[in-house]
Design goal:
CATH architecture: 3-Layer(aba) Sandwich
Largest sheet: 7 strands, mixed
Helix content: 40-55%
Shape: globular
Strand content: 5-15%
CATH topology: Glycerol-3-phosphate (1)-acyltransferase
Order of helices and strands: HHEEHEHEHEHEHEHH
Distance between the termini: 19 Å
Radius of gyration: 18 Å
Number of helices: 9
Strand order of the largest sheet: 1-7-6-2-5-3-4
Number of domains: 1
Number of strands: 7
Length: 256
Amino acid sequence: MRFLKIPFLLIWRLWFYILVIGSIILISPLLLVLTAKEEYYPAFWKLIRVWSKVLVYGMGFRLKVQNDQILDRNKSYMFCPNHTSLMDPFVLIILSKNPIVFVGKQELAKIPVFGFFYKRVVIMVDRNNPKSRKKVYTIAKKRLKNGTSMAIFPEGLVPPENIVLAPFKKGAFSLAIEFGIPIVPQSYYDCKRLFSWDFFKGRPGVFRTHQHQFIETKDLKKEDLSNLKEQVFNILETALFNDKEYMKDTNRQNNG
């Protein structure tokens, strides 16, 4: 059965928000302490990984991971996954034992409760403000140490479900070149199908992820930015086009 019956689907969806709100309230004292100082970030990351596992596994999902290359615990990376679902950040957090600093949209800081902690740990950027974008470099330079990595969803948004992969913004690639850190392309195949933004669609299941070969940037210059962006886009687009389940769902949206 592809979808849950509507009453069960609504209960299942409601359970997600109960899990999120209830768990945030439960761990909020720890969050307040661990987001107070930057040096607490590794401990904060361990807590957030546990929280992410509670949300993912608590919703009946499991992970199936394919790694073409294994992360070095002592190195920093730029993670670049495709973005299809609210579940994507939680999947990424589970996949990395080492701390990751996210670069995210400033608008998300307005969400009650979540926004309070979001703005304490995420490098926020206003994409329409050049000064805001420049500030990201300054903050990122301080954070990228002791194996801490960065993550940016290069599409910059969650595209409509009939789109395989939206055009990439340049921020992730500009930062990777600036700091000479490898890019880690990741394909997420099932988050869109199993936990769509459509409230009346979805079911428990397996999230398949593919961590592709890393792309080194230490010898690249600003002039290489466009080629680097295109290279990562082609890797993810090819992987998604070659996945039958991902394309079946995308084509269904186009024909629906």
